[in-house]
Structures are given as C-alpha cells and as structure tokens.
Design the sequence.
C-alpha cells in the first residue's frame, strides 16, 4: 500500500476509497501503489473547483487518478491539488502507458502542464485553439438561442438594461 | 530534415533507409477515409508497404459533451450521455444513472434493473452488429452489412417501441427507467430471441471458415495479454488476448450477478480472436436476454421519490403537491449531495465509465466519461507495427473505436 | 413503308422534350452520395443503404469514397471546429453540379450541443439544399430529403445553381 508519509488525507465517498497526496509526491505515490498491485490506470482527469462553495479546497485544480488492481478488484482514487498558472504536476506516463493520452487531454482541456511528458500537445482541440475549454471560467460558447432569456438580454440595448 | 505535418507533429526524415532499399514514406490517412471508422486520422510511416510508425490523430469529432453536461441540470444531462458512444446509448445512460444514484444513495426496484439489463444486452448486440457489418465490408464481405443491419433494424424497432426513439433512447435515467415496457415489446423481444441464434449461425457460416477472412485476420494485429493489460485495453480487445475480465462478472452492477453467462475469451490474441470473442458475446447476450425475460420481476420501474422523478400523469390532476413537485423538478431540478463517484459498466467495446463530481447544486460540477475506445486506440501502433497497410484496416476494424466515444 | 406510316410509327415511339428536362431527369435519378460518415447519423445513413429501406430504388446507392466522383454530400451529424476546414476542402473537391443534405439537428443547427466545440450549423461553411430534422433522423426521413432534392434537380435543368 501507499506509505503514510506520502498521504495527506484519506477517506471513502459513496463507497469509493480515495487518498490525497501532495502534488510533488505524485510520482512516488503512484509508483508505490503500482508496486503494491494497482497496475491499471483506469482514467486520469481533472476537476476545476473555481468558486465551489461546498467545502474548502487545497487548490483550484484537483488532478484525479483512478487506479485498479485487477487481481483483487480493489479500486483507489488518488487526488492531488494543484494551483498556479499554468499549474504543474509530474507526468506518470512512464508508470502507466495509458496516461500518455489522458495527460494530453487534461492539458488540452484544463491547461495542466505535466512535467516530463514526451509530447504534451493538444489532442482534441485544434493546435491553434486559445484557452482550455473545460476550465470553469471558459464560457460554454455556442450561439444565443432565440426566445430564450439570453436572447432577450442580448436584444436589449445596454442603456435600457 | 523534418517535415511539419500539422497537429504539432513533425516526422523526422533522417534519410532513413527501409529494409527494402527505399526511403521511409510518410502517409496521411483520413480524417475522411472510408476505412477509418469515422473521422480518425492516422499518420503512418511506410517502408514499402509495411507500417514502421503510426500515430493516430483524434479530436475531429470533439463535441464538448463534458462541458455541455456541466451546463445542464442533473436530469437533462442524460440526453448528452446518449451521444458520446453513439453505438451504445443505453449503456452510456446506465453508467451515468448508476453514478448519480450512487451519489444520491438510492437503489432502483428489481424490475427496473432487469429492464436495464435487457436494454444493455440489446444494445451490445446492436453495437456488435454494426461492427460485424462494417468490418465485413472492409475485409471484402459486403453481404455481412445487409445481414447484420437486418437484425439491427429489428433491435432499433424494439428501441422505438420501448422508448419512442430509434437510436438515442435516453431510456435509462437516474432513479429508474423512462416507462415500463409494453406487452408488444415483449412479443418483439421473444421473437427476436428465438430467431437470433440461427442468425448468428448464418453470420458465422459466412465468415468463420471463410478462407479470405481467415487469411486477412489470423496472425494480424497481435496484442499479447501482458501488453493489453499494461496499455489499458478493455472489452473484446482484452478478452481477445485471453484475459478473462468482464465488468459484468468482476464488479457486477444492475443485477448482472443473477444471470448465468460465460465470459467470451480467445487465446489467439489477433484480429480473428477478437472476432470470435464478439461472436461469442452475441450468443451470450441472447442467453442473458432469454433469462431476463423469463425471470422479469413485477413491480414499479422507478424509485418512489418525487424529488428525483416526476409524479405520474394521473396524480397531477388530483394532487396539488404533485403539481408543485412537477413544477419544481422541471424548473429547478434536484440537487445531489457533494462528492465524487466513479461507476464503470461494460459496453460493447470495453469499460465505459462515468466519473461524476457534485458540488451540491442542481448541475453537475464535472462529468467525465471514461471512454473505452479512447484507451483501446492507444495500442494501435503496437498492433499495426510491421504489418501491411491493408492489414491496418483489419486492425482498426477490430479495435472497434467509435470516434464519438474517443473525442467526446 | 410509306411516309405517312413512318410518321405515324414515330409518333407512337418518340417522345419530345427539352434538353434541360432530359438532363434534369438523368441527374436527378443518379445522385451519387459521398461516403462521408461523421457520427450517429452515419449509422442511420448506412441503414438507408441496406436492404430494409434501400436507397437504390432512388438511384443513390453508389456511395463514393472519393469526393471527385460524388454529386451529393450528406453531412451526417455534428461538425466540430476542427473538422470544419476539412469538410469545406472536401466540398471544394467535388465537381459541379453538387448538392448538400444537412442530416440531423447537429449538422443543421448544432442541436443539443450549443457549445464551443461545434459549428452551429453546417450552412455557415457550405451551401445546404435540404435540411433533415431529427436526432438522428429516421432512414425514411433521409429518403424524403433525397426525393425533395431530386424534384429540385429535375426542375433546375441544364444549369443548376444560377
């Protein structure tokens, strides 16, 4: 299992076990977990906690690693909170090959920079795209729908609004 | 000397000599190419006709589904889950519904669970039929498409009967299912379950011993069990490499532990092995359908919680409380306790998971779909290495990537 | 055979029409679609081509993989910002005269996905002749669109798209 020195917090939410580690220790923690049997990285993603009032967050971005031990069928979620612009965290593609594309996707969508990644480029959006769409301060985009609330606001001149 | 080929990709040409005396050639496949199953783009380095390097470029069908789900309320987001893996909509619904139910801490009635299993298995059949038909065409067996889509049409008719819509049913929702199945649905299902085994025999008689098909698939696209596990492949890709792993058995959901079926595996580790696995899975799906029909429990199909699901139509005429609940639900939605949860279900192409984060409001904070095709595309380079270009088509075909699932 | 008898037999066996109508008739009944599947609607498009619905009855079963051989592009479903320039390139590669069917809500207006990633209607980059509503439309809907297009092609005569 993961050494206690690396963990910050651990718990269970709705039946899912999780553990929080400091972002600087993420590579060491995942390496220890991989040696203890969690050999499959199911997915890797990020959650943006911008203006989330449900509780105190250690950082704006929460990088989530879902691990699975295919022998014991045990699952564990590893979290690391990062901040900064752009936020940095170590890449784990050398431990888990599927992380390669997942990290590129997370970089593309959230702008998290994974240090030591071999080819950290945009994967889903075009190369010349500006911004990181899944950040909470990035607008959903699209067009104003007619007869909707937004359309009314859009039609009203600013001095009358 | 390096050439920029777009997508931040440079192919370095160091005057590399191939094994046949020529220089390596960089070829671009797609995104509009008839054999890449949609809009997959491949950049391939060829030595003569052999693949030396392969790089998939994805994102041509990026729909922003995860962002869209954040902008919709909990019950509205079901609609977008349908559309990411567009060959297995009810299974996507199921993953999302199970995740939301897990956060809400509710359990659906047994009849709803059985109906969910029926829809999941019908979808698995429909998805495998599309795979079989299109792969058949790519490998020169055009007849397969006609046969497979005949049965797929029957399944889509059943979808229409049960939910009113052919493809994107949105039938499975948090809290249960849309409505109970009609007697006509069960008649159709019964007829389907009786005729399907002989139809599968028919497909097999066309392909399994077909010398052309065998030559084009046996020994092509090898992926060892160890590689498949390390690279995160799931579904028929993993089982085709001889690993007995099926989420329906390993981590049963929606009452799958009550059904008697086998995990289809094959030790061939090649395209033919994956074909055999899918054919076997179709047979097992029919078996599960038969059992689900026979032991279908009676009772309600939705949880009895007015905060999550709308009241029945009859109640609206007599009860003021029901009207208020109805109004609140459709103007404001319901809230889900804060927390995050991951639920995985087995779709036609592997582990189709849903990671949901709630911040206690009436909209999800984050919905992440763990796409099976996204993970299954990564071993592509390993499988296609040193094969001919024409074999690459068979390999992409048996990887069965749905680009909507890859790009989301 | 006398001259009068000849004229009589010609009257029974020869139809007269304008060249425009003849060309329109020929074009309308042999619209070759481009095999261009994007997303969900592509599956319903395949359904239209299979035995159950059989688009061959309308002369459009010859799905061409190359845009240079195709007359009609069926934009089946959502077009992302990344795909849009490619779609336009493919459209430009098709020889005139050419027609576009926008199949499905996503291709026509963006559908449920009113967001940053999708082109809100394919008519922003290519001229669309027929819109097919639905998400995805039934195969019959696509056939109906094809029939509407055929009527239009037949009415256009020698020089369509003036």
Sequence:
């Amino acid at each position: 299992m993961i050494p206690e020195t690396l963990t910050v917090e651990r718990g269970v939410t709705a039946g899912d076990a999780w553990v929080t580690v400091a972002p600087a220790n993420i590579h060491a923690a995942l390496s220890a977990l991989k040696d203890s049997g969690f050999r499959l990285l199911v997915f890797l993603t990020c959650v943006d906690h911008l203006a989330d009032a449900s509780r105190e967050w250690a950082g704006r971005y929460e990088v989530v690693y879902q691990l699975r031990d295919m022998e014991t069928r045990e699952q564990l979620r590893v979290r690391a909170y990062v901040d900064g612009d752009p936020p940095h965290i170590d890449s784990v593609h050398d431990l888990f090959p599927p992380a390669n594309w997942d990290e590129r996707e997370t970089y593309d969508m959230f702008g998290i920079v994974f240090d030591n990644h071999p080819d950290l480029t945009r994967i889903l959006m075009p190369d010349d795209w500006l911004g990181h769409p899944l950040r909470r301060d990035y607008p959903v985009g699209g067009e104003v729908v007619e007869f909707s609330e937004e359309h009314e606001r859009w039609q009203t001149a600013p001095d009358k609004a | 000397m390096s050439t920029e080929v777009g997508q931040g990709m440079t192919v370095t040409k160091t005057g590399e000599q191939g094994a046949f005396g020529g220089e390596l050639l960089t070829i671009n496949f797609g995104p509009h190419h008839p054999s890449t199953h949609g809009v997959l783009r491949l950049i391939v380095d060829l030595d003569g006709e052999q693949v030396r390097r392969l790089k998939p470029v994805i994102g041509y069908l990026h729909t922003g589904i995860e962002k869209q789900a954040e902008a919709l309320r909990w019950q509205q987001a079901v609609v977008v889950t349908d559309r990411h893996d567009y060959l297995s909509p009810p299974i996507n619904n199921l993953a999302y519904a199970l995740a939301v139910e897990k956060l809400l801490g509710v359990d659906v009635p047994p009849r709803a669970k059985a109906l969910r299993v029926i829809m999941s298995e019908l979808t698995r059949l429909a998805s495998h039929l599309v795979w079989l038909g299109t792969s058949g065409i790519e490998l020169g067996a055009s007849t397969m498409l006609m046969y497979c889509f005949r049965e797929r049409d029957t399944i889509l008719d059943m979808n229409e009967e049960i939910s009113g819509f052919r493809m994107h049913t949105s039938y499975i929702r948090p809290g249960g299912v849309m409505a109970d199945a009609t007697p006509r649905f069960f008649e159709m299902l019964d007829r389907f379950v009786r005729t399907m085994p002989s139809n599968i025999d028919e497909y097999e008689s066309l392909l399994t011993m077909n010398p052309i098909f065998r030559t084009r698939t046996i020994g092509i696209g090898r992926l060892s069990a160890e590689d498949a596990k390390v690279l995160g492949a799931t579904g028929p890709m993993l089982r085709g490499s001889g690993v007995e792993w099926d989420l329906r058995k390993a981590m049963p959901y929606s009452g799958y532990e009550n059904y008697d079926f086998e995990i289809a595996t094959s030790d061939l580790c090649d395209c033919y092995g994956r074909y055999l696995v899918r054919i076997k899975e179709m047979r097992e799906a029919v078996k599960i359908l038969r059992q689900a029909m026979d032991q279908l429990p009676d009772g309600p199909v939705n949880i009895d919680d007015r905060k999550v699901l709308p009241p029945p139509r009859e109640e609206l005429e007599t009860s003021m409380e029901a009207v208020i609940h109805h109004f609140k639900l459709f103007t404001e939605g319901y809230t889900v306790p804060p927390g995050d949860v991951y639920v995985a279900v087995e779709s036609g192409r592997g582990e189709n998971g849903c990671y949901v984060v709630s911040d206690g409001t009436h909209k999800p904070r984050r919905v992440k779909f763990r796409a099976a095709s996204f993970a299954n595309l990564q071993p592509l380079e390993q499988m296609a290495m040193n094969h001919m270009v024409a074999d690459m088509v068979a390999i992409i075909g048996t990887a069965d990537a749905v680009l909507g699932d890859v790009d989301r | 055979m006398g001259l009068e008898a000849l004229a009589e037999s010609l009257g029974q066996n020869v139809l007269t029409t304008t060249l425009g109508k003849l060309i329109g008739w020929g074009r309308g009944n042999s619209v070759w679609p481009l095999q261009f599947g994007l997303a969900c609607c592509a599956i319903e498009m395949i359904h239209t081509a299979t035995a159950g619905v059989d688009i061959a009855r309308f002369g459009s079963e010859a799905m061409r993989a190359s845009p240079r051989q195709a007359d009609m592009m069926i934009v089946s479903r959502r077009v992302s910002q990344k795909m849009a320039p490619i779609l336009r390139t493919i459209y430009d590669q098709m020889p005139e005269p050419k027609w576009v069917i926008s199949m499905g809500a996503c291709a026509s207006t963006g559908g449920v996905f009113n967001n940053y990633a999708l082109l809100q209607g394919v008519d922003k980059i290519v001229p669309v002749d027929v819109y097919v509503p639905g998400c995805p439309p039934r195969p019959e809907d696509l056939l109906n669109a094809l029939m509407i297009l055929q009527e239009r092609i037949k009415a256009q005569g020698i020089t369509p798209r003036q």
Notes: The domain at 25-156 of chain C is CATH 3.40.50.12280 (Rossmann fold). The first helix of chain C runs from residue 3 to 13. The longest strand of chain C covers residues 72-76. DSSP finds six helices and four strands in chain C.
